């Protein structure tokens, strides 16, 4: 099981969009996947067509974490209701551990080291999935650190803009310090470039800067700025099933990134 956090200390750069694009790629490839929505705003849950009911949300089970407890709260993404695979084949697995404002009790910077094991604990023994994607809030709080502690890989999302490059530096520095603490093994980091515009010299300049700063950690391919992304999310639909050329380009790029992640 590959556990991947999608993170950035800067808000609005496309963390949830990347999580959703990779989930769509996994669904298209038939890879059993769980999306954990750690952000109290629960945007990923909304776009996956699910809502937390009662205390069946990730924040509630992280209060008093029990081994494997995530299985008690997972629901199938609405995306799986209309599979493109033949009826005779097994229903594809794309589950969600829904987010809600409840997780904001952990959206703070004060925490004990043992608290950082909470997410790892609720995932322990769960073997239904090949891939777990964790959508993180845009801050270095207990939630983000719990996600990093539970992950094999951390992807930092960056837009090709000055402020976002600076935010990526902060994220990668925080991640290096986290790894350096030797308490956790987070072996791989990557930088996903999102919302790049062709023929826009400022973007070309910032993408070069990201390559200079992070070298091979910059994930190939980069993701274009594509307004269709907002339509797809508004319809709570997977990009791999959205018609048109713009969605097809996005879908292909997410599939390539996913293949690289799972290699
Ligand atoms: N490649 C893209 N092309 C066009 N629009 C995009 C792209 N990526 C993201 N967006 C849009 O940008 C907005 C912010 O994206 P998103 O919510 O994924 O960012 P985020 O990092 O998760 O934000 P937050 O920090 O609030 O959690 C959304 O409206 C989303 O649809
Ligand atoms: Mg988000």
TrEMBL record:
CDD domains listed in its UniProt record: ParAB_family
List, alphabetically, the InterPro entries matched: AAA_dom (IPR025669), DNA_Partitioning_ATPase (IPR050678), P-loop_NTPase (IPR027417)
Superkingdom of the organism of origin: Bacteria
Listed SUPFAM superfamilies: P-loop containing nucleoside triphosphate hydrolases
AAA domain: residues covered: 1-178
Q: Name one Pfam family in it.
A: AAA_31
Write down what this protein is called.
Answer: ParA family protein
The organism is Kocuria gwangalliensis
* Taxonomic lineage of the native organism: Bacteria, Bacillati, Actinomycetota, Actinomycetes, Micrococcales
């Amino acid at each position: 099981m590959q556990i991947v956090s999608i993170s950035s200390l800067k808000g609005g750069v496309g963390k949830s969009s990347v999580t959703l694009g990779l989930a769509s790629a996994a669904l298209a490839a038939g890879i059993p996947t769980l999306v954990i929505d750690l952000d109290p705003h629960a945007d990923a849950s909304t776009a996956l067509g699910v809502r937390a009911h009662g205390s069946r949300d990730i924040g509630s089970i992280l209060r008093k974490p029990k081994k494997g407890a995530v299985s008690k709260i997972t629901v199938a993404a609405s995306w799986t209701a209309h599979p493109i695979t033949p009826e005779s084949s097994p229903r594809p697995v794309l589950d969600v551990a829904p987010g809600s404002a409840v997780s904001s009790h952990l959206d703070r910077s004060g925490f004990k080291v043992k608290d950082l094991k909470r997410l790892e604990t609720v995932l322990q023994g769960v073997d239904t999935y090949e891939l777990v994607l964790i959508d993180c809030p845009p801050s270095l709080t207990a939630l983000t650190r719990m996600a990093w502690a539970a992950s094999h890989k951390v992807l930092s999302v960056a837009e090709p803009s000055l402020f976002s490059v600076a935010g990526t530096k902060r994220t990668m520095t925080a991640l290096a310090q986290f790894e350096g603490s030797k308490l956790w093994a987070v072996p791989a980091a990557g930088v996903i470039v999102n919302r790049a515009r062709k023929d826009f010299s400022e973007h070309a300049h910032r993408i070069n800067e990201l390559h200079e700063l992070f070298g091979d950690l910059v994930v190939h391919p980069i993701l274009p700025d594509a307004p269709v992304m907002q339509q797809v999310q508004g319809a709570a639909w997977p990009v791999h099933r959205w018609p048109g050329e713009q969605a097809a380009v996005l879908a292909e790029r997410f599939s390539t990134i996913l293949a690289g992640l799972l290699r």
